[in-house]
Amino acid sequence: MTSASEPVVALLGTGTMGLGMAGNIAAAGLRLRVWNRSVERAEPLRDVATIARTAQEAVAGADIVVTMLYDADSVLEVVGGLDLGDAVWLQTSTVGVEGSDRIVAFAERAGVALVDAPVLGTRKPAEDGALVVLASGEEALRQRVAPVLDAIGSRTMWVGAAGAGSRLKLAANAWVLTVLEGVAESLALTRELGLDPRLFLEAVGGGALDAPYVQVKGGAMLDGSFDPSFALSGAAKDASLIAAAAAGVDLELALMPGILAHLQRAVDAGHGDADMAATYLEH
């Protein structure tokens, strides 16, 4: 049972990540409205949230507006036409440096209180409320967004002024993609050297070179299990954002250009909607 004192939360974007986040916001007892361009993707939430017909209907009178959309262009396309009133805008999409700068500038012009808070995790952590939130924004906003952050995440890091969260997210995603492609290449090399590629996972298993992610993604690659926890097309988009951020500060990255090229090749081969582990198919 909710009460009038509990914040009203509007969540825009109920895709792979947003759906799980919305479920946990509702499970925390917060009053929730959701909107998605394709309304059928919001249908699983019908028993726990109000499904709005328009984005403006979702945000009208809300205390917190959460965006979990594909990129900065889609975020600004949706939010740019809305009246957010006195709501705090909790922006959780991965938008890169240039994108976050545009979002921060828009929020300042519009007089909207913004918390830039991309998340670490894929579908399962989103469903489990176990995301790591990289939050950035004015300290005065922390308590206002705390009920949502507590619902969607296992941990929140506050890392500076709005935009800092998006910058740290790129660094974290650079590591994720490095591990992803490293596992795919090691499995392919083991295979092409005439061995069972599972021997690689066994060799590193349980040691200093192992990590849960190595075994989970490596196993998915070898099993052909590509139900998307995070789509390969999204991984390629994030790799592009990382490369652009590095170029913007004249930092030469040795690995990311090759990773980006390989992910894009897999997308071009028709695997974009599959899990990013499907990069192995092009090795």
Automatic annotation (TrEMBL):
Q: Where is the active site?
A: 169
> Where in the numbering of this chain does the 3-hydroxyisobutyrate dehydrogenase-like NAD-binding domain appear?
163-279
A Pfam family assignment = NAD_binding_2
Give the keywords, sorted. Answer: NAD, Oxidoreductase
SUPFAM superfamilies in the record = 6-phosphogluconate dehydrogenase C-terminal domain-like (SSF48179), NAD(P)-binding Rossmann-fold domains (SSF51735)
Molecular function GO labels: NAD binding; NADP binding; oxidoreductase activity
Recorded hits in InterPro entries, A to Z, give: 6-PGluconate_DH-like_C_sf, 6PGD_dom2, 6PGDH_NADP-bd, HIBADH-like_NADP-bd, HIBADH-related, HIBADH-related_NP60_sf, NAD(P)-bd_dom_sf
Q: Into which family does the record put it?
A: Belongs to the HIBADH-related family.
Q: Which PANTHER family match?
A: CYTOKINE-LIKE NUCLEAR FACTOR N-PAC, OXIDOREDUCTASE GLYR1-RELATED
What is the protein's name according to its record? NAD(P)-dependent oxidoreductase
Species annotation:
Nocardioides acrostichi
